[in-house]
Specification:
Residues 75-388 form the Leucine-binding protein domain. Helix content is 36%, strand content 14%. With 444 residues, the chain is α/β, with parallel strands linked by helices. The chain has 2 domains: 62-175 and 320-411, Response regulator (Rossmann fold); 177-313 and 417-439, 3-Layer(aba) Sandwich (Rossmann fold), CATH 3.40.50.2300. Strands 6, 7, 8, 9, 10, 11, 12 and 13 form an 8-stranded mixed β-sheet that branches. Strands 2-1-3-4-5 form a 5-stranded parallel β-sheet. Helix 8 links the parallel strand 8 (256-259) and strand 9 (283-287). The longest helix has 20 residues, at 24-43. The two termini are 14 Å apart.
């Protein structure tokens, strides 16, 4: 469980998100004040507005949400996610809004540290947003506690940490790092000799070896050799040398090197490319988020080091026609905005998260739109069709997978892709479900 900020709670039991228990006298006082407010609004219509982030009917103006991600840091940056959120808001408002309501998107830079992450969450609570949507943070433990205290749902986080799959107020749209690494391990276990994982030396990175090894074990392969790298490293020659030694240790079996370093994957590959000429050939494999089409293009395309690489993702490859609606929005509302790469997994996740938000608000019709009603809709029978980018999404209790460390995981499907002639294309048709592998995984 996530540690929560200490607050005064009713003596009868623990504090939970939702309306606070009130005495009969307090309820009577509230009713009288509400009646007075209605009389005032009836006589001075233009003087009455709505609580920030809250709407109560089709005549109300604004649904306020927040999207956060790190920007301008020395480690991983995801500026495309808040930029995509803003572009989506411009587009949806130009086409009638969310069931007639204006969408207002606030953004926040979490600066890739726990202090910045907590500040973003507290700002969301202060602004009374109805949801945090399509966001990225390595410090979900610092963000979800303030959101839980305020009862604000977290929709479509990137899935970087296990906290996003534990909080009752988190509604993930993908299988996060757990599904990517387990799926990659399953695939590599069938094709690789010795295998070396290169990953960030962070708390989040510490989860990755166990996840990759669960997939390798499912395919009858031994555990990967674990190599750590500083998150803000500018050169990774030592890690590249060690990875090549491990992957070529059992000739003639062709080994595999798996860099999962987000934006520092390119730094590793620069070292790897230079040093690999002294070793037998090995295969590269990674996950979307560390490798995408723009990274492949920048490294030389078909003549680059990624040719033949295996890559697991959550969604169809970037060239799939199912992404056309998102690309249309980008062309119309963010043409020339270099922050938004339609092949970026973060941008794609933000698009899907806002698709969920639109479906939720549409389902509420002319009723109240608030953090409480959004949670209620998501917890019950709401189904979200993402146009084939994911399976149909639902967050009822019966939809949760039986993964001990990730109890809020509902979508454990992955896609297998391969770099062929410099292009990232589908290695298999459709999605592959890795829930059975994940169910056998536990950090205990």
């Amino acid at each position: 469980m996530i540690d929560r900020l200490r607050t005064r709670s009713p003596r009868t039991g623990p504090r939970v998100p939702g309306p606070v228990r009130r005495t009969a006298a307090a309820r009577a006082r509230t009713a009288l004040l509400s009646a007075g407010a209605l009389v005032t609004c009836a006589s001075i219509t233009v003087g009455c507005g709505v609580v920030p982030g809250f709407t109560g009917g089709s005549g109300d103006d604004t649904v306020t949400v927040m999207t956060w991600a790190p920007e301008n840091t020395s480690a991983t940056n995801k500026p495309g996610m808040p930029a995509m959120a803003k572009a989506y808001a411009r587009w949806v408002n130009a086409h009638g809004g969310l069931h007639g309501r204006k969408l207002n998107v606030l953004t926040c830079n979490d600066h890739n540290d726990y202090i910045g992450a907590a500040k973003c969450a507290r700002l969301a609570a202060k602004e009374k947003v109805v949801a945090v949507v399509g966001s990225y943070s390595q410090y979900a433990g610092s963000t979800l506690s303030p959101l839980e205290s305020a009862g604000i749902p977290y929709i479509g986080g990137y899935g970087l940490t296990k906290y996003e799959f534990k909080s009752a107020l988190s509604y993930p749209v993908n299988g996060g790092q757990p599904a990517l690494l387990a799926g990659l391990g399953e695939e590599l276990g069938k094709h690789c000799g010795p295998l070396a994982l290169v990953r960030p030396d962070t708390v989040t990175g510490d989860q990755l070896p166990m996840l990759l090894d669960s997939g390798l074990e499912a395919s009858g392969h031994t555990a990967a050799f674990d190599l750590r790298a500083a998150e803000d490293a500018t050169a990774l020659d030592q890690q590249a040398q060690q990875a090549l030694r491990q992957a070529t240790a059992v000739p003639p079996r062709k080994g595999c090197v798996v860099p999962v370093l987000d934006e520092r994957t390119g730094t590793f590959m620069d070292s790897f490319r230079r040093l690999s000429v002294s070793y037998p050939a090995v295969r590269i494999a990674s996950v979307l988020g560390s490798v995408d089409q723009s990274v492949i293009d920048a490294s030389g395309g078909r003549s680059g080091p990624y040719e033949g690489a295996y890559v697991t993702g959550w969604y169809p490859e970037a060239g799939d026609a199912r992404w056309d609606p998102m690309k249309k929005v980008i062309r119309e509302e963010a043409f020339g905005d270099n922050r938004i790469d339609p092949a970026d997994a973060g941008v794609q996740t933000t698009w899907i998260a806002y698709t969920v938000l639109k479906r939720v608000v549409d389902s509420l019709g002319d009723g109240e739109v608030s953090a409480r009603t959004i949670r209620s809709a998501l917890d019950n029978d709401l189904e979200v069709d993402t146009g084939g980018l994911t399976p149909t999404l639902r967050w009822r209790f019966q939809d949760l997978t039986a993964v001990v460390d990730y109890p809020r995981l509902i979508n454990s499907d992955v896609t297998f892709q391969v770099v062929r002639d410099g292009r990232l294309v589908a290695a298999r048709k459709g999605f592959v479900n890795v829930s059975k592998t994940l169910e056998s995984t536990s950090s205990e």
